[in-house]
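step=encode ok
step=design start
structure_in=
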């Protein structure tokens, strides 16, 4: 069974984080929500508090096939400033494991040197932080093991693409049909 970890920080964009969790679980893909804060409760950017399954320091990241970074503010900055997150993302990218980032979170990948010379997309308005990246204006961009997406409005597209990557096009279509997408 494929395993995905979704890293949540105070100020994360709830739709971006939770849509991915919901869609992957509908596809029967194991998802672990992980707080990078000092508490299992993470406070979303719009006042929605989420109970995570684990704290960052409790997790063995070698067990996962993919790490996902939701955007939102200041959630993206909290992820970007976390030493452990930076280490895990760099390791996943280096090892060829999947890294997903949506909205402003692709700027984290850029700051780590993961996106240089690669194709990606991001939230309109943070492009100035994405120099040396081949930016597109499509909803979701896959460049080898890096998957990026634009934001709240593309969260379902992003989640379905993650399902396709992990479990195939047929499973992604099945889930899309089941949610009338």
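sequence_out=
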């Amino acid at each position: 069974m494929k395993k995905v970890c979704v890293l949540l920080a105070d100020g994360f964009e709830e739709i971006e984080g939770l849509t991915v969790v919901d869609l992957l679980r509908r596809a029967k893909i194991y998802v672990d929500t992980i707080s990078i804060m000092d508490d299992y409760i993470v406070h979303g950017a719009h006042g929605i508090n989420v109970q995570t399954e684990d704290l960052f320091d409790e997790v063995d990241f070698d067990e996962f096939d993919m790490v996902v970074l939701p955007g939102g503010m200041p959630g993206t900055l909290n992820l970007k400033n976390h030493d452990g997150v930076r280490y895990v993302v760099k390791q996943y990218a280096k090892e060829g494991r999947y890294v997903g980032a949506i909205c402003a979170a692709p700027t984290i990948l850029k700051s780590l040197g993961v996106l240089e010379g690669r194709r990606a997309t991001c939230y309109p308005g943070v492009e100035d932080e994405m120099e040396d990246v081949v930016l597109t204006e499509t909803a979701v961009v896959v460049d080898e093991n890096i998957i990026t997406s634009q934001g709240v409005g593309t969260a379902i597209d992003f989640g379905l693409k993650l399902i396709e990557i992990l479990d195939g096009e047929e499973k992604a279509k099945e889930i899309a049909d089941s949610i009338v997408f």
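step=design ok
step=annotate ok -> The chain has six helices and eleven strands.
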